[in-house]
Write a structure and sequence with these properties.
By secondary structure, the protein is mainly alpha-helical. It is built from 21 helices and 4 strands. A hairpin with a 2-residue loop joins strand 1 (15-21) and strand 2. The longest helix has 34 residues, at 362-395.
């Protein structure tokens, strides 16, 4: 199994293109070749939507449900669900991994991935709204790439309704693999953090984590209710503490930004092998964190009940900003404001907790463990919300298949608490990479109605002004 994961990982994230330049060699992976051009294309086609319509993103969050459909979510609730998964491991351990492997310059490429990725997030979330359908099990609506790819293929070939479409099946399977991989990452990182902070053996932490998760995810209606409370608390606490630390060290910020920009373009050759490594790690961790283009967030966006699909797309684009530009940047700054001698040779949670200990003393280690637990717990609940429509697409509308997948995810949560750090990250990267591969190619032919919806929205908006 490990060999298969490594082979697929190499296909998705290995060097597909090598560009020799004076003094540096640029190594580009398949996912970078897909994500960056796609983000640039949609940013241009939407006329720089992330900047131009940023005020509309903020206003769209306050929209109430268009109707009183049972089980349907408001636009804000779908942002909470997608934020639960975005604001998770990628914001803490993912940023640490990016800086460890690619240096400070990886942060710049995470920013770029977020800026252009927000346009991609807008397109896929709007598509999820356009092609959503009723959910007979949980109530409300469901959808996502498996559904909009399926509908597109049916309409393109003009055939009678089909049970399955190959690309939709591949996406749904990749998603389920990805979310099992993330389940392992969650428990692996939490057990490491609690061992450092409280000297609790990983087995005990894992058992408690699995039992608490099972109490929530095995109940039909608990997911969104728990996230509505948990996400604002955890994100708010983390932002308050980290922004305070950054402000207290504001005199060092010019040096930190100088380091980020100089290393972003490979000007310091000591950085993990040069420019290509910096870019790849920044983009990879940016994707793993904000999910733009991967097709995950549309599974939440489809559940919203809104007067305009565009507003749902705008809110999901805002989610990318919240995740990467705001929260990931806070983690990066905390890391880069820590003397290198204190973190030399450390990886993963050990590295992050060492940085927090430098800033906050022993409380920093405890705070990191606690906030990581909250981030991880919300991520696990969120990914099982994502899994609902994909399990239904593959196995039909029945509680048996839904429950079996939840049990599988809980089992992976347990295994991950005792697994090797590198393997569980690679499995998550393989899953999200495959999802992106199947989703992103279909966004191009499917995007035409999205642009039409955007034009109609802006015409209506101008009429109100």
């Amino acid at each position: 199994m490990t060999t298969i994961i490594e082979v697929v990982y190499g296909f998705l994230w290995g060097d597909w293109l090598t560009i020799p330049l004076p003094g540096i060699t640029v190594h580009v992976s398949l996912l970078v070749l897909l994500l960056i051009p796609t983000g640039v294309y949609f940013t241009i086609r939407t006329r720089f939507l992330p900047v131009r319509l940023f005020p509309d993103m903020l206003r769209a969050v306050t929209e109430k449900k268009a109707g009183q459909g049972g089980g349907a979510l408001s636009v804000l609730q779908t942002l909470v669900v997608s934020t639960a998964t975005r604001v998770g491991m990628g914001n803490l351990v993912g940023v640490v991994a990016a800086i460890s492997a690619g240096g400070a310059g990886a942060v710049f490429w995470m920013w770029i991935t977020a800026l252009i990725g927000s346009s991609t997030a807008f397109v896929e979330a709007t598509l999820a709204q356009l092609y959503k359908e009723k959910d007979p099990l949980y109530g409300g609506y469901r959808g996502g790439p498996a559904y909009y790819i399926h509908r597109y293929m049916e309409e393109r070939h003009g055939r009678k309704p089909r049970r399955y479409v190959l690309l939709s099946v591949l996406f749904a399977l990749s998603g389920l693999i990805c979310w099992c991989g993330i389940s392992q990452v969650i428990s692996n990182s939490v057990t490491s953090a609690f061992e450092n902070a409280f000297h609790i053996p990983p087995l005990y932490t894992t058992i408690v984590l699995v039992l608490l998760a099972a109490v929530i995810v095995l109940r039909k209606d608990a997911t969104v209710k728990v996230l509505d409370v948990l996400v604002p608390i955890m994100a708010g606490c983390y932002l308050v503490i980290t922004l305070l630390l950054i402000l207290l060290n504001f005199r060092q910020l010019p040096g930190v930004f100088e380091r980020i920009f100089s290393e972003a373009f490979g000007l310091r050759q000591a950085v993990a092998g040069g420019f290509g490594t910096v870019v790849m790690n920044g983009v990879k961790r940016g994707l793993f964190s904000n999910e733009a283009g991967s097709g995950s967030a549309p599974c939440a966006a489809a559940a919203a009940e809104s007067k305009s699909p565009v507003k749902v797309g705008l809110v999901q684009a805002l989610g990318v900003f919240i995740d990467t530009i705001l929260i990931c940047s806070c983690t990066a700054m905390i890391m880069l404001l820590t003397p290198a001698r204190l973190t030399e040779g450390l990886v993963g949670m050990d590295l992050l907790q060492a940085a927090m200990e430098f800033h906050l003393g022993r409380f920093g280690v405890i705070f990191t463990a606690a906030i990581l637990w909250l981030f991880s717990f919300s991520t696990f609940i969120g990914i099982l919300f994502y899994a609902r429509p994909n399990v239904a697409y593959l196995f039909g509308d029945n509680w048996l298949s839904q429950t079996l997948y939840k049990l599988l995810a809980l089992a992976m949560l347990f295994v991950g608490g005792l697994a090797a750090y590198t393997v569980v990250w690679d499995l998550g990267d393989v899953g999200v990479g495959l999802m992106t591969l199947f989703n992103i190619f279909m966004l191009y032919p499917l995007s035409k109605p999205v642009f039409g919806q955007l034009r109609a929205y802006e015409e209506q908006r101008r009429g109100r002004l």
